Structure to design on (944 residues):
């Protein structure tokens, strides 16, 4: 890349800048005065601002990230040179400088590589001949203070040559910085001496230690940034597959091969021309993203967060396509580049490993030859084992038999071998050999199904297949979703990474390592005979993402086409297609429906129809949720799935009770009476008449007894309201029970208090007692791992609820305070949806809402439901990142379903307005008769 390519003349006219500096010095009575310094500061500050604005415009013109980074570096070079010359020639001139009155200024680190982002630190090394003198100290201070005042983050060191060498030998960070050193200005003889001694005394014969240190440093960095290149909010600089990985590669090559440019690695045969071009292309793209991020945010922002992804995509020229938004297309490109960086890492590390093995000191020729002897793999003539890695006998094996592209991975699995980079490199170059004939080849499909369902390490092999491009070529539908991200806060990984992680979860469950986390799954696993069906369904369940149509429907179509090819029977194909089409059903019903409502179980059983499908769908659902990302799965979701599974299993096996609800309630009341046998008879009889049928039918006896003691203690204390907390560590849920005088807005106040206390509500059950009090149970997501910490948190939330109910705290104020610290969801748009359905329950109208989550939303919704004179029997809250789906089982004040269509329309309009944040506007525009007056007194469903 030449200066002509960079059009440096557009950015900064160095000669004109120097002439202006000379003019400032010529007009000054005293060049050391503050006025002269201020004039110089204003001149240089304007040159930097104008230059950066021009560079930003040029980035939008040509889109080159590397050119942008180098233009910023060149601009910085000129500013430092002009400043240094002004300090040494005008402010502190020395007519006959002694040997000690010399210094050199070098750029180090990223700046030394001639690349800077707009917010990068400016790392410079000031090289002295001996120790610092008064003159060098004055010059250094003048230059540094001016740069700091101009707003630059300057990292600097002032050392003599001996110190540079000594510290480089003892400190790997300093060694790496000086490895990238580049002369800027001053006494070049000092820089040349340091460079020569650094090469001779530091770099020579220390490559092994440097490579080991840099690779270890890289591993630690990856762990901190999230050890996958497929995080949907990646760190462009430090993350896996980011700029630092490319820089690390070049450090290693530069250090080991003693080269200064990428083209030198091509000459040495380390990289092919294609790979060198890929390196430059990847680096250019990543620099473009990073520079746009810094320009957009005005700071050194390295995380490509949701907040800025859409704007960066627009800056880079991406547009919407059917099924994929512009931001999703941009992020897919980003992850493909990150994948290329991973490929380059493997290629270069393998080359270094081979070179190092050849030159290992202390090994005799005979021993070295034995160590690197290649052995044939039993049963094949085309593949060899090389130090625990599978490789190929020659470069023609894939041309001779393209099925070998699948066999390579199958043999690695069954013989527990890693992959030699040469084999993966050849596989990538041979992808065009995987055509329709290979895809239909019976042996190729048998080998692939064996890999997918392997009892050993299927995900590792599939990941290598994916990284090599073989998986996407063999299954083109999978190739379409490679590196595809979904622009939301729920999914943590790209679609292909999610599918492979889902396979990995099931593999772990099969190996018995997840029994404690999934006891029900472990118990039913022996009854699941169709392992292949589950593995194929897991690999395919999201394979149709990014299409305009519903991905479940389209995915089922893909399954019907692909399964026969893989060797599955028609019955197995039907089951896989059904699993793919219904893979979201069990999760949604478990989290958003009342599982104590018989109609819920009847409807789900109608979908499932058999115990075999129920078992398969349960396991698929668990693996799917577990693979979404860390923290998405919790014990509460597991408990909901277990409840749904258990109730549905009873119905499908004919064990669902046909006894009427009234008879079952009488039996439950008798059992509760037995459990309270030690109470005085009059008190016991009074208490048994306190609860209505829904409470007796849905609450477990153990909890009924606990509630009885709670209500008894509250009565004895003469308290009008109280809260009780309990943790469920296995379920990752905390239960808060509220006893308070019944009030139509009670649930709204309670949920608002929870929001103000920072608690995420997962579920709510609402009951009323015959003496006019409400017994509400609120389930909140657990935050702390230790029960003691979680109990203290729950008690604080309970205290907040009591304070708000007692009028000691004003709810809008505490919610407003909490809102100031919430995470922004501005980049996301969720179209508000509201449905009113009378077919999902025999006794209740079910209202389902979908919208953008925000602090206090649940409180606002429940307040509107109260305002509309609706009694809430239960609320079920499901959050998918930025999106929330709330489901409410309601009746009118008389305990009946809401059947009037005009009232349905009113409910939908009011709730949509709440979701859109325009409730007050809608309320004012609506006819007065359409707005139900607030209730003075409400009766809950438990009273019917």
């Amino acid at each position: 890349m030449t200066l002509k390519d960079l059009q440096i003349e557009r950015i900064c006219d160095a000669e004109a800048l120097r002439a202006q500096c000379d003019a400032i010095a010529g007009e000054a009575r005293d060049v050391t005065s503050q006025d002269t310094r201020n004039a110089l500061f204003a001149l240089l500050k304007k040159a930097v601002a104008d230059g950066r604005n021009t560079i930003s415009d040029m980035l939008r013109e040509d889109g080159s990230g590397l050119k942008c980074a180098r233009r910023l570096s060149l601009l910085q070079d000129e500013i430092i040179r002009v400043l240094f010359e002004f300090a040494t020639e005008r402010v502190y001139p020395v007519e006959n400088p002694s040997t000690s009155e010399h210094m050199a200024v070098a750029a180090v680190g990223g700046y030394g590589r001639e690349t800077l982002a707009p917010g990068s630190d400016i790392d410079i090394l000031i090289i002295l001949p001996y120790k610092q003198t008064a003159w060098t100290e004055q010059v250094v201070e003048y230059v540094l203070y001016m740069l700091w005042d101009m707003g630059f983050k300057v990292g600097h060191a002032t050392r003599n040559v001996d110190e540079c060498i000594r510290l480089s030998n003892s400190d790997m960070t300093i060694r790496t910085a000086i490895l990238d050193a580049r002369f800027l200005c001053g006494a070049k003889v000092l820089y040349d001496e340091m460079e020569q001694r650094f090469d001779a005394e530091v770099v020579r014969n220390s490559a092994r230690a440097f490579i080991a240190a840099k690779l270890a440093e890289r591993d630690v960095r990856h762990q901190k940034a999230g050890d996958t290149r497929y995080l949907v909010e990646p760190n462009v600089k430090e993350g896996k597959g980011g700029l630092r990985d490319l820089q690390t590669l070049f450090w290693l090559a530069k250090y080991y091969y003693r080269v200064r440019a990428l083209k030198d690695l091509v000459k040495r045969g380390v990289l092919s021309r294609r790979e060198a071009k890929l390196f430059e292309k990847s680096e250019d793209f990543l620099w473009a993203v990073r520079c746009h991020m810094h320009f957009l945010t005005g700071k050194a922002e390295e995380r490509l967060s949701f907040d800025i992804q859409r704007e960066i995509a627009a800056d880079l020229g991406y547009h919407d396509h059917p099924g994929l938004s512009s931001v999703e297309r941009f992020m897919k490109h980003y992850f493909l580049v990150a994948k290329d960086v991973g490929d380059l890492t493997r290629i270069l590390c393998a080359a270094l490993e081979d070179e190092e093995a050849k030159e290992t000191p202390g090994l005799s020729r005979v021993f070295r030859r034995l160590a690197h002897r290649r052995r044939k793999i039993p049963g094949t003539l085309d593949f060899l084992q090389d130090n625990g890695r599978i490789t190929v006998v020659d470069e023609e094996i894939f041309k001779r038999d393209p099925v070998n592209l699948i066999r390579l991975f199958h043999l690695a699995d069954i013989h527990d071998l890693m992959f030699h980079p040469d084999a993966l490199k050849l596989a990538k170059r041979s992808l065009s050999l995987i055509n329709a004939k290979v895809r239909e080849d019976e042996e190729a499909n048998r080998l692939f199904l064996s890999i997918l369902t392997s009892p050993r390490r299927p995900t590792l092999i599939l990941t290598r297949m994916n990284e090599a491009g073989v998986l996407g070529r063999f299954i083109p539908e999978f190739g379409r979703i490679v590196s595809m991200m979904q622009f939301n806060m729920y999914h943590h990984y790209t679609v292909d990474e999610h599918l492979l992680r889902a396979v990995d979860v099931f593999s772990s469950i099969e190996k018995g390592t997840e029994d404690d986390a999934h006891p029900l799954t472990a118990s039913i696993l022996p009854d699941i005979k169709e392992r292949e069906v589950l593995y194929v369904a897991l690999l395919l369940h999201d394979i149709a993402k990014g299409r305009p149509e519903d991905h479940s429907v389209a995915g089922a179509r893909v399954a019907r086409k692909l399964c026969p090819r893989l060797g599955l029977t028609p019955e197995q194909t039907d089951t896989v297609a059904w699993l793919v089409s219904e893979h979201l059903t069990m999760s949604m019903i478990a989290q958003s429906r009342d599982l104590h409502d018989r109609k819920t179980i009847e409807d789900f059983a109608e979908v499932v129809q058999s115990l075999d499908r129920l078992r398969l769908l349960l396991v698929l659902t668990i693996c799917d949720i577990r693979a979404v990302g860390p923290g998405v799965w919790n014990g509460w979701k597991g408990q909901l799935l277990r409840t749904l599974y258990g109730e549905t299993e009873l119905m499908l096996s004919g064990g669902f009770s046909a006894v009427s609800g009234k008879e079952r309630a009488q039996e439950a009341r008798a059992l509760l009476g037995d459990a309270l046998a030690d109470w005085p008879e009059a008190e016991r009889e009074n208490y048994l008449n306190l609860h209505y049928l829904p409470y007796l039918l849905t609450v477990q006896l153990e909890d009924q007894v606990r509630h009885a003691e709670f209500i008894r203690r509250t009565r004895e204390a003469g308290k009008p309201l109280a809260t009780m907390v309990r943790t469920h560590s296995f379920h990752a849920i905390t239960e808060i029970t509220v006893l308070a005088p019944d009030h139509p807005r009670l649930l709204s106040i309670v949920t608002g208090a929870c929001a103000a206390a920072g608690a995420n509500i997962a579920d709510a059950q609402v009951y009323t007692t015959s003496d006019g009090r409400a017994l509400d149970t609120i389930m909140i997501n657990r935050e702390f791992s230790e029960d003691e910490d979680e109990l203290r948190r729950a008690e604080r939330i309970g205290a907040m609820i009591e304070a708000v109910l007692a009028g000691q705290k004003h709810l809008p104020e505490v919610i407003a305070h909490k809102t100031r610290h919430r995470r922004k969801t501005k980049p996301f748009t969720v179209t508000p949806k509201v449905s009113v359905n009378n077919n999902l329950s025999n006794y209740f109208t079910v209202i389902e809402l979908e919208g953008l989550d925000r602090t206090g939303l649940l409180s606002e919704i429940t307040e509107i439901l109260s305002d509309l004179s609706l009694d809430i029997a239960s609320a079920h809250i499901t959050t998918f990142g930025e999106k929330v789906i709330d489901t409410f089982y309601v009746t009118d004040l008389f305990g009946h379903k809401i059947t009037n269509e005009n009232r349905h329309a009113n409910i939908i309009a009011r709730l949509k307005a709440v979701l859109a944040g325009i409730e007050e506007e809608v309320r004012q525009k609506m006819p007065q008769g359409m707005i139900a007056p607030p209730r003075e007194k409400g009766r809950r469903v438990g009273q019917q």
